[in-house]
Design brief:
By secondary structure, the protein is of the alpha+beta class. The chain is about 25% helix and about 40% strand. The relative contact order is 0.17.
């Protein structure tokens, strides 16, 4: 008999033998006492059964269990190339500033800006009247010296007339006059300013009537049939970049590329201001689409893994001591998320190499991974 039942019986006995509310003795008959006791015992029994049923009646099926929607992608083995990403600058294959080689006034412009020129093509002419007169004078003196030399030579060698000294003076006088004539001819020739290379006349610094001196810049010619890409490589990659390393170049600003090439030059000295060393490569540029001084996105191949397990960067969850990913095990209503601790390898753009922790064919959670926990039931709503 429990405590509640005992209390009920004691209350009934008190009512039988005790005093009434008015202080007078009130004795209950045995029949009334028995009825009250049965009623009280029934009430207590029903209350106990109700409380016990609520506490012990819960079942596992009635417990709450969440189901999370996820998207997955199959884990696959593929090749992976680790690259060094750099920012490069475009330069013309050849860029030449033409300077005047003679002093004088510009008398004629022969090529306009933007025109294509060939090597040796005249671009402008300087006033050569003074030099032309000097050249005519030097030609006459050269003819006289040559004639004098020939006559003294015959007299000395054939007739033994004259001294050896006169013979030598005539000889060297003729040679000197010829050299002076050649010098003036070359100076007159240089009054015509010519293109030293094939290319585009990109700029012109002179107009008709401009007075120029020796060394004055007059025009600029660029050869853009090929372009040169230069970039600086951080010193920590010194052992990974060599002449001949494959390179991919693209130009995001104009949507051109990617172009493929190979490094043609690797600098031998590190720049102390930015701790990089220079590299160069050459690309064909048909049509001149790539312009000098453009910015290029350069990717130098560091190494290639033929068989690598790649996962999207966003599938990784950082935890204490490293990273985990979630995979889905089971099908349909039995599908659950399982955590996998992974060891990371090199990364490129939005892809990461997994060295350990995943097997090919497993279904990797790529959407919903921030919500699930190990053992959660999941509903696969999509596959990438």
């Amino acid at each position: 008999m429990n405590t509640g039942t005992k209390d009920t019986i004691m209350k009934a006995e008190t009512m039988q033998h005790g005093k009434g509310a008015g202080g007078r003795g009130s004795m209950l008959s045995p029949a009334v006492f028995l009825s009250l006791a049965i009623l009280l015992l029934s009430t207590v029994s029903l209350w106990g059964c109700g409380a016990g049923g609520q506490a012990g009646g819960a079942t596992p099926e009635m417990a709450y269990s969440r189901v999370i929607n996820v998207e997955v992608t199959p884990v696959a083995i593929t090749s992976f190339t680790e690259t060094i990403r750099l920012t490069g600058t475009v330069q013309a294959h050849r860029d030449v500033t033409i300077s005047a080689e003679e002093s004088g006034v510009v008398r004629e412009i022969l090529v306009e800006k933007g025109s294509r020129v060939r090597i040796g093509q005249p671009i402008a002419r300087l006033d050569a009247a003074l030099l032309q007169a000097q050249m005519d004078q030097a030609r006459a003196m050269s003819e006289l010296a040559r004639e004098t030399w020939e006559r003294r030579k015959r007299l000395f060698e054939e007739d033994q007339v004259g001294s050896e000294l006169s013979y030598l003076e005539a000889r060297y006088g003729a040679e000197q006059a010829a050299a002076n004539l050649k010098l003036l001819q070359e100076r007159v020739e240089r009054t015509v300013i010519r293109a030293p290379i094939d290319g585009i006349l990109d700029s012109r610094e002179i107009e008709v009537g401009t007075m120029v001196g020796v060394g004055t810049p007059v025009a600029r010619i660029v050869d853009t049939d090929q372009v040169k890409i230069t970039a600086g490589v951080p010193e920590r990659y010194a052992g990974d970049v060599t002449v001949g390393s494959p390179v991919t170049v693209s130009f995001g600003a104009m949507g051109e590329g990617p172009y493929e090439g190979r490094i043609s030059y690797v600098g031998a000295v590190v720049n102390t201001s930015n701790r990089t060393f220079p590299i160069e490569l050459t690309l064909p540029n048909p049509g001149g689409v790539i312009k000098p001084e453009m910015v290029a996105d350069v990717s130098v191949a560091k190494r290639t893994l033929e068989e690598a397990t790649l996962v999207p960067q966003e599938s990784l969850i950082r935890v204490e001591g490293g990273f985990v990913v979630f995979v889905v095990e089971g099908e349909g209503s039995s599908a659950v998320a399982r955590a996998r601790k992974v060891e990371l390898g090199p990364a490129q753009l939005n892809r990461v190499v997994i060295r350990e922790g995943l097997e090919p064919g497993e279904r990797l959670v790529v959407v919903g991974q921030q919500t699930v926990a190990d053992g959660d039931r999941v509903n696969v709503v999509g596959q990438r």
